[in-house]
């Protein structure tokens, strides 16, 4: 009896302290949620608001007015459209090459019986800790005559050692040696095993690789900044840079009269609005993938962290 | 006699050779599988490593890596004596240590909070939202910062004004630059970086929690005495790793957020390497600076690893 009584009172006391804790936790987490979500939400509502309201800072919680002028400007801009198509092309080709290089290597290194395993692993580990740096790499790309071609964006980074290790760890746990041995008894070699058994069993890791590499290509601007010279070949991120950061929207007028100043101000407002719309448009591919990605990428991080 | 001895030893040379051939035959497809990666990595990672020697030479494109005249430490000396040496080194150190100190605890706290929070649906929502900024490209991130911080139309200044403050031109003021850089980075990556801690916390045995609660521990005590110790090893390993890249703070964001007004604090080693090597086409000088940067990184990694292995018994190798 007494025992039960103390237990009950204990529970009451404990739940009071813990209730305060739960409420504090709820407030902190909600605050974090707002801090992260509001800027993203703001971009969306600003992109469909009236240009004057956006540049005047009147947009807060809901769109003010309604206008798709920003989007119209984005679609009128040939640079944006062309580079958007370029980026889709680079991302698709680049990701395919990434997979062709990464997946077979990862499979091979997951096979314990592979005689060159130690050597190949060491060969890749070295590159994780030392690198030649920006300029020597640039010179190699230049000497390979890849400057200003799409290959400069795709080939040098075709193998990400980190991603390869993630895939290797996956293969190690999902394709046990016994499975291969059983297949060998039935006269199956490595090639057949890889294509007929390993790949069909590895859809999850292939999805993770597509997402990691694909987003990497889509968001990449540094290689393009280094290697691409011709504007018609620019990927989207480089065009975004000139519009969003360097402010090179098409604005060129000499301001002399008040009317012109008025017109200039209106145009500046439109340019600002266009930037918000542009951010949305450039994120569309990632946004479409996001719900699908979300299921997989947490798994990717976990597999990667197992390697220890 | 000889033959017999060989036979007694197990494998004869001929047999051994046969085995090697057999293994190679069996593994042949595997060698084909690894070949493309090996070739690409050799060309784009190993040849540049070999090309680092241009830091000690007067690089001339027509003479190549080996043919260019040897000048020893000339470019290193030039860098150490230039006014940029102290500025870029200091800027790089401050920026990365600031990022490290501010950026390390926040994902850990987020993971602890999410783990302790019992409403699973809401936890999922928070995770979905906080992971999202990680996928925003650097260019878009910097563009958003420019828009949000604009003194005339940015919403952050509107909030400041509505609270009775005065609009601040953040981008034109060098004093704000580091805070903008670091806190926007935290905003972008805290969710993503919390995943690994969240995973470590998920591995904590629920028995431990139950036992602690039975003994009358409050939730805060459970976090302090069970959760934190269990993710400490993960946190230390990640900390060591980030100390190893202390001088390689992201080129991309620093470069994009740079303008003439904040160059005094935003010029870091990597942006300087880019300007010297690509914009001014002084490849040897630039490689020397880059090599110095990597050397400092390696030294930092070794030092921090030593400290961690002495202090907490955790080491990378």
What secondary-structure arrangement, pairings included, does this model have?
The complex is a heterodimer of chains A (308) and B (317).
Chain A: H1 2-47, H2 51-56, H3 69-76, H4 78-109, H5 117-129, H6 134-143, H7 151-154, H8 161-174, H9 177-185, H10 190-198, H11 203-219, H12 222-227, H13 236-245, H14 258-306
Helix pairs in contact in A: 1-14, 3-14, 4-8, 4-11, 4-13, 8-11, 8-14, 11-14, 13-14
Chain B: H1 2-9, H2 13-51, H3 64-67, H4 74-81, H5 83-103, H6 105-116, H7 120-131, H8 138-148, H9 155-162, H10 174-202, H11 206-214, H12 219-244, H13 251-256, H14 263-266, H15 269-279, H16 283-311
Give a brief description:
Chain A is mainly α. Chain A contains 14 helices and no strands. Chain B is 75% helix and 0% strand.
Describe this structure in words.
The complex is a heterodimer of chains A (308) and B (317). Helix content of chain A is 76%, strand content 0%. The relative contact order of chain A is 0.12. Chain A has helices spanning 2-47, 51-56, 69-76, 78-109, 117-129, 134-143, 151-154, 161-174, 177-185, 190-198, 203-219, 222-227, 236-245, 258-306. The two termini of chain A are 51 Å apart. Chain A contains 14 helices and no strands. In chain A, helix 3 (69-76) crosses helix 14 (258-306), helix 4 (78-109) packs across helix 13 and helix 8 packs antiparallel against helix 11 (203-219). Chain A has two domains: 2-47; 70-306, MetI-like fold (Orthogonal Bundle). With 317 residues, chain B is an all-alpha fold. Chain B folds into two domains: 2-58, no CATH class; 74-311, MetI-like fold. Helix content of chain B is 75%, strand content 0%. The longest helix of chain B is centred in the N-terminal third of the chain and has 39 residues, at 13-51. Chain B is globular, with a radius of gyration of 27 Å. At the A-B interface, helix 1, helix 2, helix 4, helix 5 and helix 6 of A face helix 2, helix 6, helix 7, helix 8 and helix 9 of B.
């Amino acid at each position: 009896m007494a025992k039960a009584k103390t237990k009950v009172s204990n529970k009451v006391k404990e739940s009071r302290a813990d209730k305060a804790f739960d409420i504090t936790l709820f407030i902190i987490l909600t605050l974090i949620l707002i801090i992260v979500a509001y800027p993203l939400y703001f971009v969306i509502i600003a992109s469909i608001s009236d240009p004057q309201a956006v540049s005047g800072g009147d947009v807060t919680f809901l769109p003010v007015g309604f206008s798709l002028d920003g989007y119209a400007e984005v679609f009128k801009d040939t640079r944006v459209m062309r580079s958007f198509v370029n980026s889709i092309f680079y991302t698709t080709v680049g990701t395919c090459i990434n997979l062709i290089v990464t997946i077979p290597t990862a499979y091979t290194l997951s096979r314990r019986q592979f005689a060159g395993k130690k050597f190949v692993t060491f060969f890749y580990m070295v590159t994780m800790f030392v690198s030649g740096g920006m300029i020597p790499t640039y010179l190699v790309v230049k000497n390979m005559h890849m400057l200003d071609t799409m290959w400069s964006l795709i080939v040098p980074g075709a193998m990400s050692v980190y991603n390869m290790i993630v895939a290797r760890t996956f293969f190690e746990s999902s394709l046990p040696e016994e499975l291969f041995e059983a297949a060998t008894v039935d006269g199956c070699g490595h090639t057949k095993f890889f294509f007929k058994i390993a790949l069909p069993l590895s859809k999850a890791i292939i999805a993770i690789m597509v997402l990691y590499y694909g987003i990497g290509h889509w968001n990449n601007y540094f290689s393009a900044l280094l290697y691409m010279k011709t504007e018609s070949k620019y990927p989207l991120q480089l065009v975004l840079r000139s519009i969003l950061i360097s402010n090179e929207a098409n604005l060129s007028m000499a301001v002399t009269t008040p009317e012109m100043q008025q017109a200039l101000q209106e145009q500046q407002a439109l340019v600002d609005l266009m930037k918000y719309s542009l951010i949305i448009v450039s994120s569309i591919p990632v946004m479409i993938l996001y719900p699908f990605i979300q299921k997989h990428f947490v798994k990717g991080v976990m597999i990667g962290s197992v390697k220890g | 006699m000889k033959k017999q001895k060989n036979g007694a030893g197990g494998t004869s040379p001929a047999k051994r050779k046969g085995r090697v051939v057999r293994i190679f035959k069996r593994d042949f497809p595997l060698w084909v599988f690894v070949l493309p990666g090996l070739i690409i990595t050799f060309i784009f990672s190993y040849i540049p490593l070999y090309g680092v020697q241009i830091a000690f030479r007067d690089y001339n494109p027509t003479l190549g890596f080996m043919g260019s005249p040897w000048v020893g430490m000339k470019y290193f000396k030039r860098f150490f004596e230039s006014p940029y040496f102290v500025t870029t080194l200091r800027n790089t150190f401050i920026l990365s240590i600031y990022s490290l100190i501010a950026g390390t605890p926040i994902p850990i706290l987020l993971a602890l909070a999410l783990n302790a929070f019992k409403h699973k649906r809401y936890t999922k929502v928070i995770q979905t939202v906080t992971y999202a900024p990680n996928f925003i490209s650097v260019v878009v991130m910097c563009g958003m910062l420019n828009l949000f911080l604009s003194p005339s139309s940015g919403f952050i200044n509107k909030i400041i004004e509505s609270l009775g403050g005065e609009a601040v031109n953040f981008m034109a003021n060098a004093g704000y630059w580091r805070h903008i850089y670091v806190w926007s980075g935290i905003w972008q990556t805290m969710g993503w970086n919390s995943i690994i801690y969240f995973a470590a916390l998920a591995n904590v045995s629920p028995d431990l929690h139950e036992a602690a609660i039975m003994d009358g521990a409050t939730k805060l005590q459970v976090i302090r005495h069970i959760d934190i110790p269990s993710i400490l090893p993960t946190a230390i390993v990640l900390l060591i790793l980030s100390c190893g890249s202390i001088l390689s703070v992201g080129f991309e964001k620093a470069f994009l957020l740079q303008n003439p007004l904040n160059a005094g604090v935003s010029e870091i080693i990597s942006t300087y390497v880019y300007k010297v090597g690509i914009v001014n086409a002084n490849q040897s000088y630039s490689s020397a600076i880059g090599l110095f940067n990597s050397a400092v990184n390696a030294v930092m990694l070794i030092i921090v690893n030593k400290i961690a292995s002495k202090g907490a018994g955790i080491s990378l190798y």
